[in-house]
User: What shape does this take?
Amino acid sequence: MTPPPRWAAVVVNYEAGPLLVACVESLLADTSAGPPEVVVVDNASSDGSLDALRDRRPDVPILATGTNLGYAAAANRGIEATTGPVVAVCNPDLRVEPGTAAALVGRLDDEADVGAVGPRILEPDGTVYPSARQLPTTLDAAGHGALGRLWPRNPFTRRYRQLDADPAVARDVDWVSGAAVWLRRAAVEQIGGWDERYFMYVEDVDLCWTLRRAGWRVAYEPGGTVVHVRGVSTDRHPYRMIVAHHRSLLRFATKRWHGWRRVLLVPAALFLAARIGMESLWQALRRRPSHAD
Assistant: This one.
């Protein structure tokens, strides 16, 4: 009789192209914590990524939502379709390095009060992406929002992104990136899963915040590594994603701020509206074709 899997992996796919197959195969190849149970949840992709996966890995179940439900809702459906006591939720545009499962599943096995743990995330060029962060104060959030694009290492961004922390050292954090997060199923079930009111962005912040409020720890474990090609899906609709990001930020503020802090929601909304304009302008300039002299 085949023993039940120690861990499962949910890949949320939307228009990831050939990267989907590479992601799934990297998950299946990492048997360091035992063979994983892998499920792909597809948010109505039309780019041929599912056909490529079916051709290459017909054994991998695909849950087709029929429409773009967003990341949180797709993650919940994938979690419901798996059985492992630990479930990783992953973007489709990443590659899991061998041994990652052993490090992250092992961390959850060894520390019973850890509800979520994130690996070290590398950019394609090998630089470390700051995926383990703290919840910013109101001042740090405003400073990061205003200066982060022009002055990436300003004091507000450094505190929020924990840029001075050693990425080789494990630590507890406020939240880890939902691009690749290993979750204790019991903890996720206790809080009712991911908040599906988030379409894209901040759902990982909200998930970790809710876990911590329920008494669970959130950890960063550099013993596991993934390489992430960020923005493959979102770059298809950049302006829509900018709006979605800022709407999610405001939604989280309405959940987080209580009492007198709720008076800050109106100026926060105005600030975020202005930032949508700035981010859209930056995106337009970045995407403008260059002309040779």
In short: The chain has a mean pLDDT of 94. Residues 265-287 form the longest helix (23 residues). Residues 137-164 form one domain. The radius of gyration is 19 Å.
